Amino acid sequence: MQGYIVKRILIAAFTVFTVLTVVFFVFRLGPADPVMVMLPPNATPQDAENLTKKFGLDKPLMVQYGNYLKNAFRGDFGSSFRFDEPALRVLLMRFPATLKLGLVTFILSVTVGLSIGLISAVKPDSIIDRIGRLFALAGMSLPSFWVGIMLILFFGVTLRWLPIAGRGTPLHYIMPAFCMSLYPIALITRLSRSSMLDALKSDYVVMARIKGVPEFYVILVHAFKNASIPVITVIFGIFGALMVGSAVVVEYIFSWPGIGRLVMESFFARDYPVVQVFVIVVTCMVVTLNLIVDIIYAYIDPRIRYQ
Amino acid sequence: MHSNQDNLLELQDVTTTFFTKQGEVRAVDGVSFSVGKGEVVGLVGESGCGKSVTSLSIMRLVPQPAGKIVSGRILFKNEDLMEKTAEEMRQLRGDRISMILQDPMVAMNQLLTVGKQLGEPYKFHDKVRGSLREMCIRLLEKVKVPAPESRVDDYPFQFSGGMSQRALIAMGIANNPDLLIADEPTTALDVTIAAQVLKLMKEIQRETDASIILITHDLATVAQICTRVIVMYAGRIVETAPIKIFYKNPAHPYSVGLIRSVPVLGQPVDRLFSISGQPPSLFAMPKGCRFAPRCNKAEKKCFKHYPPETWLDENHSVACWLYPGD
Ligand SMILES: Nc1ncnc2c1ncn2[C@@H]1O[C@H](COP(=O)(O)OP(=O)(O)OP(=O)(O)O)[C@@H](O)[C@H]1O
Ligand code: SF4
Ligand SMILES: [Mg+2]
User: Fold this and answer.
1) In which domain, by residue range, is B266 found?
2) CB distance B158–A217 less than 8 Å?
3) What is the pairing mode between strands B236-242 and B211-216?
4) What is the ipTM of this complex?
5) N or C end: fewer C-beta atoms under 10 angstroms in chain B?
6) Which residues, including other chains, have CB under 8 Å from residue B85's CB and lie 6 or more apart?
7) Of B56, B86, B121, the CB nearest to A211
């Protein structure tokens, strides 16, 4: 068990390191010269030289890479061009807004997705199953930006029930959270339904019933425990990546002051340090979520725990 | 009719159908038989003939939603199980009626300890007296799993095939059921382990005086432990007989084939008989006798009408036109 976790942590650390390296080379070797990008149009060549020196861009690439890694481990990813503040700090200031919306989305997706999935599997072809399947189909195929705009038009503009931008009150969460959770709910519903159906068909479930185990216990302990393994992968594993993707879109549509919106703004303003730190922070988040999944697996599945 | 008050279990014309996309499958088609108190009955037949579905029907655990017991009565202690509520059935299962599934490796939940799964028949029938863990250890001891005190905390993947089968048997007998259905308890095991498990089942039977339905396609196993044989073919019962009569005077041509295909010590293996052909597809069942396409005694009538059940003597019945009855 301990060996297993140590191994997972090492793999996670290696992944983060790889991403740091890739980010460095992509941003340094990319076509855009950061110095030219940063300077105002009327800058002199002297200005350019000063700036190049200031960022150490005149040094050999490997030396730059070494410095970059050293700084990265200290949490220093350069300064934002726009705000003249450490890029990480700029990002972290906007982080709580994203985190709160993410958390609401997460809880909404998991509770709704799991409940519909479970009920559908236990009572196939019931009303809930049919509605769930329809909803899953919609959630899988409707793009979140379209849903967002429709929601704004209908509940925000026409009915004027819900605020269309910003945050502050619980009401502000409803539309963006709904919009962001559409796809995860669909995914979790489908997956939990199918893995639960498989589990309910299995011999160990029949054996439990043969022993006179009551149905709720059969479903929740015997079947669900087994069915949860693939579902957890989705919930934590893909969730991180998925949320970041839709956070960028949804935060932009609803003017949500989080990191998704920040990265769009930074991107258009060519504020590369912020974009760079966004990529790194998001990777770390995804890697951490995967690590959590691996540890949960070990907790659920004795075959992993004892290997 | 050959029903009497001493029967523990009696199936009357039970039909279990699967409604699949490809069509209806009558996996069990009008099956009637009975099992006496303390009797050990062998239920034999080729793969797919409906042995497991028959047992699951008795447990009222036919796979849902495709499968359904569409008609018949299943009398257990003279009460019709078909009329019991879900909760009444649950109370019977694992207490008075129990079953051991075919494949021990998949019949156990890989994520729960063996002990936890062993304890369930006690826990859910209010039979826990003192320490549940202690009861589970006693149970493992009873089925001769070595080092039960530590094994009780193991997970199924840490058990060998033979030990898993023993653990499964232990779950089946926890509450000393009146009826135990053992679905091919030795098929998944190698010969020596299979012999040990069979010996164990004999001992348990003697100790608890449970009625046992032993399902197998191996007549050698039947000979070792059963007092009576029920032969199934393509969803129907074709012959039932006491074991001695069955071996000496098998009536149905299919039974004759089965017996001749059992290797006999001292007889050269190349003379081993096997029934040619395949059992019929349950989707395209022959109209008459289901064995007719493979039967060397088949006549015209056999292909037209299904033969009725005929009693050759008090305990020996057969469904074949060679024995037209009275
Ligand atoms: N879940 C199911 N859905 C549809 N048909 C089924 C299902 N389970 C069983 N059947 C049908 O019922 C028939 C009888 O199956 P059963 O498992 O009882 O055979 P068996 O005699 O136990 O065979 P084996 O010796 O291989 O275990 C099969 O041929 C199959 O076509
Ligand atoms: S009824 Fe006819 S075909 Fe069927 S087993 Fe008897 S003789 Fe053979
Ligand atoms: Mg079977």
Assistant:
1) 236-326
2) no
3) unpaired
4) 0.92
5) C
6) none
7) B121
